[in-house]
Automatic annotation (TrEMBL):
<protein>
    <submittedName>
        <fullName>Sugar isomerase domain-containing protein</fullName>
    </submittedName>
</protein>
<dbReference type="GO" id="GO:0016853">
    <property type="term" value="F:isomerase activity"/>
</dbReference>
<dbReference type="InterPro" id="IPR046348">
    <property type="entry name" value="SIS_dom_sf"/>
</dbReference>
<dbReference type="InterPro" id="IPR001347">
    <property type="entry name" value="SIS_dom"/>
</dbReference>
<keyword id="KW-0413">Isomerase</keyword>
<dbReference type="Pfam" id="PF13580">
    <property type="entry name" value="SIS_2"/>
</dbReference>
<feature type="domain" description="SIS">
    <location>
        <begin position="33"/>
        <end position="226"/>
    </location>
</feature>
Length: 253
């Protein structure tokens, strides 16, 4: 019998390899984000529901990450207020609209909204994509095509239209999430263990950050990247970026 930890590690490694192969989509997304950053705008990032919020937190106030992230961390879908509560909220049609309003998404022309949702089917997720289009905001998705395609159209977690996120945005980056998320079958355990969605979402998000930095450098623009506050001079370095984006992001460090 194989060691489940080794199987888990190897499976995760294979998923990351697959995401690393999404070069064309990531390059297109990096170009859109880079152009927005050079206009002095923030990048809006939302993880509509449950653990997808963790990918937003990964991008926000992060050493090695962009200072210009408008992290949309709405309490309604935050797991700290209850997991099943979060699931009910993310399935509520129209809930995304006042959330995007509160974070000023679409306040200026040419903005970008990055939507990170592992499954890409719930109401809040699809409404974010539809609202982005209505507001003239470029939408980028990190989500799974294969999961969305396999999930029945009448599943209660879906948007009433049955739409899939990957088909509803301007640019789609496949996170290659396996169907069911958890991947390991253990004897005596009724359900699979070993979830994968956070690895997939966060790796894809950091890949996009790195490629956006490469794009900015190619244009002669210094990427607004944060330094660890635990390094000498880190606080002073980051404060200059805080001052640069003060008033543009709702949450700022």
């Amino acid at each position: 019998m194989s060691d489940p930890v080794i199987t888990y590690k190897e499976t995760i490694s294979g998923l990351l390899d697959a995401i690393a192969g999404e070069r064309e989509a990531v390059s297109r997304a990096a170009c859109a984000m880079g152009e927005s950053i050079m206009r002095g705008q923030v990048i809006h990032v939302i993880g509509p529901g449950g653990h997808s919020n963790m990918a937003v937190e990964e991008m926000f106030s992060r050493a090695g990450g962009f200072a210009c992230i408008n992290a949309i961390l709405d309490p309604g879908t935050n797991l700290s207020h209850g997991g099943f509560r979060s699931m009910r909220v993310e399935r509520t049609p129209g809930y995304a609209i006042p959330v995007l309003d509160s974070y000023r998404v679409g306040a200026t022309e040419g903005e970008v909204l990055l939507i990170i949702n592992a499954y890409g089917v719930n109401c809040m997720t699809i409404d974010c994509a539809l609202e982005a289009r209505r507001r003239g905001v470029t939408s980028i998705a990190i989500t799974s095509r294969s999961f969305a395609d396999r999930l029945p159209k009448d599943h209660p977690s879906r948007h009433p239209t049955g739409a899939n996120l990957y088909e509803s945005v301007d640019i789609f980056i496949d996170n290659h999430l396996p169907y069911g998320d958890a991947i390991l079958t253990l004897e005596g355990c009724e359900q699979n263990v070993g979830p994968t969605s956070t690895f997939c979402n966060c790796f894809a998000a950091n890949y996009l950050v790195m490629e956006t930095c490469r794009y900015l450098v190619s244009k002669g623009y210094t990427p607004p990247i944060l330094r660890s506050g635990n390094l000498p001079g880190g606080d002073a370095f980051n404060q200059r970026l805080v001052d640069q984006y003060a008033g543009k992001a709702i949450l700022l460090f």
